């Protein structure tokens, strides 16, 4: 009797669970394959953003969703521009600043609090969720959108001003300007060629 009951319960839930586990693994597999292709990922996200903007413009509604999306994206941007360990907290903790503050300090690479891949993933997922929400009329709350836009712009300017002041104070740049190039063999070959003459 016990074997029949266990099989009955297991056979009903196991295939459903296995299906979702397989879907999750396949999704993660394809997501992992996109990791090195940053440019293509961001192009795809730009297409999703454009589709969302066209949808909101065409419907002339869902401004509260767009405002909430803007606040969420601002929060993501702050995490993307911030170091993993805040130097202000590290200084007060007594361990000394994590980022170099003087030219004589040891070089320490900038490590983001929110890595680029997670930033992209959260950014894209937020636009997809907001796009799906535009199909439900209960989320179309009537608001005067220019006030929301002005408030978001003020919030963005104040937040970025504070973030830029933080970058200047602790002397870090959260972007890779480009890969540093070294002379290597070309420089040594040209110098040895000039010695032979």
Automatic annotation (TrEMBL):
Membrane-spanning residues: 39-58, 64-85, 119-137, 143-160
Membrane topology field: Multi-pass membrane protein
Primary gene name: LOC115968799
Protein family membership: Belongs to the RER1 family.
Primary localization class, coarse: membrane
Keywords: Membrane, Transmembrane, Transmembrane helix
Originating species: Quercus lobata (Valley oak)
Compartments, record wording: Membrane
GO biological process: protein retention in ER lumen; retrograde vesicle-mediated transport, Golgi to endoplasmic reticulum
Pfam families reported for this sequence: Rer1 (PF03248)
Name used for this protein in its record: Protein RER1
GO cellular component entries: endoplasmic reticulum; Golgi membrane
Origin superkingdom: Eukaryota
Keyword Transmembrane belongs to the record: yes
UniProt function note: Involved in the retrieval of endoplasmic reticulum membrane proteins from the early Golgi compartment.
